Amino acid sequence: MTPPAFSPAGIRFEKIEKRYGGLYALRRVSLDISAGECAVFAGRNGSGKTTLLRIAARLVRPSSGTVDFRMKNGKEPEPASATGFVAHATMVYDELTAEENLLLFARLQGIPNATARAEALLNEVGLIERRGSLVRTFSRGMRQRIAIARALLNEPAMLLLDEPATGLDPQGIAWLAGTLHRFRDAGRTILMSLHGESEISALATRAIRLDAGSVVADTKAGANLRSILTFADA
Amino acid sequence: MLKTILGAVVLFLMIAFTAYLAFNYAPIEKSMGVIQKIFYLHLPSAFSSFVALGVCFYANLMYVFKRQPKWDWLGVSAAEVGLAFISVVLVTGPIWAHPVWGIWWTWDARLTLTFVLWLLYISYLLLRSMLEEPDKRALFSALFGIFAFLDVPLVYFSIRWWRTQHPQPVILGGPGSGLEARMRVSYLLVWGAFTGLLILLLNARYKLEAMRASVEDLRTEAEVQ
Amino acid sequence: MTLLSNTAVLLGKELRTEFRSRELLTTTVVFILVVVVLFSFTFDPSVSESRRFGPGLLWLAFLFAASLMLQPCFLREQNNDTLSALRLSAGDPFAIFLAKLIANTFFLLLTELLMLPVFAILYNVRILSVLPQLILVFFLGSLGVAIPGTAFSAISAQARMRELMLPLLLLPLLTPVLIASTEATASLMDTKPELRRDWLGFLAGFDVVFLTALWLFGEYLLEE
């Protein structure tokens, strides 16, 4: 696995608030996640995990508050190029082949040698055999893999994953855990939301629980990692 | 509250007074007769609707850049009030036309423009009703409103050029042309009263929207608990 | 320049996906055909008077077809949330709009040109001598339809009853395009054909106004 193109990045959320009318998805969330950490967000549906990740990915505009990236070398990167985002949806085109999808997104991001890069990633995620198949024909596990390949195109310093294990069979989960393990060891920062304990949550170096849009537990503040993930009271 | 009631009373008196002027003080127009007096309703309404359109456009722009709900409230108020005035224009036009020309409707430039404007206002309000989430509703209706406003001069010019090539009876003879002194005075006073009406209606609708927004917020918050 | 190269990349994607399925093209062509034929029942094209209505009916058919054809434009990007992927990778959001509106103009123009011979036969109009000028009118008119149409496709994709919403938003706004295009087309199909530069200039102006508006406000149209 190639080390990231940028030096590892941390992220700071400063008093992030997101309202949808009268509904507070996030209430003044402030968090500081250091470069290289593997932070897991736990919480019920509607606790704000997805919103927080989408705000970090710059897809959602917060109602108030700021999000900053901190690079280890002190430089501020372009947010879009610093992060890779894996959502619940695959974010690739069903009507294009795996290879066409990766080429499209590589070219859009101005990645040099797009063809070589796409091929390398297809190899990395184990989809090289199906490079010419339409994504429409892929299984859930394969879709997850192409989604991750797309997120990795620009060698991001930070990976954002929203419930990446959903719908995966045990084999898929094992593959994902292995892949994320390698990312973490290569020095990438990972932020992901999870539902419970699994091989993937075992990678966490930090855990944060959200409830109704607020941070209710944080291992940085001394809470117990396991109990955050299993919803037991700290 | 007291101010609003006072304002409404003053306005009512103003309108009553100017209506009296329009009917009794201003002379009866030579060629068209009594029906011409509908002009005192038709033209100020048209003017008010254009002011409302301008207010709506300004509110739309401000919302897109500032994202404060109050601009959204102003936008929808201006659109609804504008729609009301335009409807008055659309109704009084044919009422005027029929005794004068013997036809109810004609596709003359001004009336056609008014009709298209009416449709655009309606589309704006319909769009709002189809967007449930308040932030989305405000943003996307504001964006549509901006595009619609940019369209207005284009609609006007295209219809005018088209009509100069295929002339139709004009419903409004040049309204400002040679207005007798008494007519002019009456007209100006009515116009003033209608501007006052516009402001009063905008204010009332704005306050209503502000209240509705906070009720909606409270309801969503309560539903979550 | 990244805007242009990204537009080219995205345009390639738009064209490739459409030509792979050809759903949009075939349904649009058939729709226009049906409308033109139905119109010819209400206005008998053999009567010379009805020939006056020909260009207007043709453009009405194009407008209705366009408001249907433009619906999937942003709706399909909701599948698998590819719109978010585009927002993250495409850089300037205007590239997304530019690519889509070029593709939409192209598809519209294609269907219009496919319809033209049918129309010429039904309405007994000589078009060969003015074909290049007609293509110019169709091009500027289709651009006029596609620019606000693409923008509103992004808006209606967010709304309920979106199938009805897009025509409702688009058609009143396109009054100037309808008038200008019909006048220009009619004068080209007249017994003494004439290229109406004033209407063409107007169409070009319309296109510029809305393209500028799209450039200024495009990123907000893509907001989540």
Describe this structure in words.
The complex is a heterotrimer of chains A (234), B (225) and C (224). With 234 residues, chain A is an alpha/beta fold. Chain A has seven helices and nine strands. In chain A, strand 8 (206-211) and strand 9 form a beta hairpin. Chain A is globular. Helix content of chain B is 81%, strand content 0%. Chain B has helices spanning 2-25, 39-66, 69-101, 109-129, 134-165, 181-224. In chain B, 35% of the residues are buried. The model of chain B has no long low-confidence stretch (mean pLDDT 85). The radius of gyration of chain C is 18 Å and the shape is globular. Classes of the chains: A alpha/beta (234), B mainly alpha (225), C mainly alpha (224). Chain A binds chain C through residues 54, 57-61, 80, 85, 87, 89-96, 100, 104-105, 107-110, 150, 153, and chain C through 2, 5-6, 9-10, 13, 16-17, 20-21, 79-82, 84-91, 223-224.
Detail the topology: elements first, then pairings.
The complex is a heterotrimer of chains A (234), B (225) and C (224).
Chain A: E1 9-20, E2 23-33, E3 38-42, H1 49-56, E4 64-71, H2 79-82, E5 83-86, H3 98-108, H4 114-124, H5 140-152, E6 158-162, H6 170-185, E7 189-194, E8 206-211, E9 214-218, H7 225-229
Parallel strand pairs in A: 3-7, 3-8, 5-6, 6-7
Antiparallel strand pairs in A: 1-2, 1-4, 8-9
Chain B: H1 2-25, H2 39-66, H3 69-101, H4 109-129, H5 134-165, H6 181-224
Helix pairs in contact in B: 1-6, 2-3, 2-5, 2-6, 3-4, 3-6, 4-5
Chain C: H1 2-21, H2 23-42, H3 48-51, H4 54-69, H5 72-75, H6 82-89, H7 93-122, H8 131-156, H9 162-173, H10 175-188, H11 197-221
Based on the model shown, name its key terms:
heterotrimer; A: 234 residues; alpha/beta; six-stranded mixed beta sheet; three-stranded antiparallel beta sheet; 26% strand; globular; C: 224 residues; mainly alpha; 11 helices
The number of distinct β-strands of chain C equals: 0
- The proportion of residues in beta strands of chain C is under 5%
Shape of chain B: globular
* Mean pLDDT score of chain B: 85
Q: Which segments of chain C are poorly predicted (pLDDT under 50) over 5 or more consecutive residues? A: none
- What is the alpha-carbon Rg of chain B in Å? 20 Å
Q: Can you count the helices of chain C?
A: 11
Estimate the helix proportion of chain C, in percent: over 70%
- β content of chain B, as a range? under 5%
Counting helices, strands and paired strands, the structural category of chain B is: mainly alpha
Largest sheet of chain C: none
N- and C-termini, Cα separation of chain B? 34 Å
